[in-house]
Amino acid sequence: MPAPHRTGFALPIKWLGLAPFALFAFLFLILPTLYIVVGAFRTGDGSFTFQNILDLNTPSIRSAYWVSIKVSVASALIGCLIGFGMAAAVTLGNLPRWLRNPLMTFSGVASNFAGVPLAFAFIATLGPRGMVTGWIQEVFDINLRMYGWNLLSTYGLIITYLFFQIPLMILIIAPALDGLKREWREAAAMLGATGAQYWRMVALPILFPSLLGTFALLFANAFGAVATAIALTGPSLNIAPILLFAQIRGDVLGSPNLGYALAFGMIVITGIANFLYIWLRTRSERWLK
């Protein structure tokens, strides 16, 4: 006998598991982003304007964006270099295999350690009265501030960002290194290639999209780090996140709508970086399959 014909609407039960995530993303990601975008093109009384976008082309705001870009590029580049070396050491090197799991576990925790706790940890360790700076002065009679060391500065912020940039690089690049097939290295060796030639002509060209994509992701990660910068340097450093916080908070010359425009510019920059990461990672996965 034929199966009875069912009428009515069938509830897609298999999609209900994604409902909490979809609701969370809509309430805390999509809606705030739309609110910022709309606010960037509004005046205080709610009328439409392009003036907030045009006001971004001022010396102080251009300088804030430029300093943020320099900090992000420097921390992303150093994080990529150190993270790649550490990931390669535990993945392809001769280090004991048992080191990999602790390193990956620590990287998973440290890549999400930011904000006020991270700033406090670095101030307590490397600040003007920090544990390490005080120990160096007491034991070696070396005052690091006399040599130009200042944690609450641009290079201090870069060093602080490296605490989560390096672990993030390790987490992302380790699977790509695992994807390098042993047959490729054996084939290169049979053809007379040295280890350096293998890396220069085979491994690095294959890994290049992954490396470039991870650099873009680390750049976006540092460019959007607001809480760490504010907690570490306060208003003393002119970077985009701190200037944004001052505008939206409503300081003496604060303009919330100009703050929305600043945030809109940051969204555009980080969006481009994340798009490059996704595109380049897709290309690298084709090679590693």
TrEMBL record:
Record-annotated ABC transmembrane type-1 domain positions: 65-277
Listed CDD domains: TM_PBP2
Q: What is its main location?
A: membrane
**What Gene3D superfamilies does the annotation carry?**
MetI-like
SUPFAM superfamilies associated with the record: MetI-like
Which superkingdom heads the taxonomic lineage of this protein's source? Bacteria
Going by the UniProt record, its keywords in alphabetical order are: Cell membrane, Membrane, Transmembrane, Transmembrane helix, Transport
Its transmembrane ranges are 21-44, 64-91, 103-127, 147-177, 198-219, 225-246, 258-280
Cellular location(s): Cell membrane
Membrane topology, from the record: Multi-pass membrane protein
Annotated Pfam families:
BPD_transp_1
Give the family per the record: Belongs to the binding-protein-dependent transport system permease family. CysTW subfamily.
Q: What is this protein called?
A: ABC transporter permease
Origin organism is Seohaeicola nanhaiensis
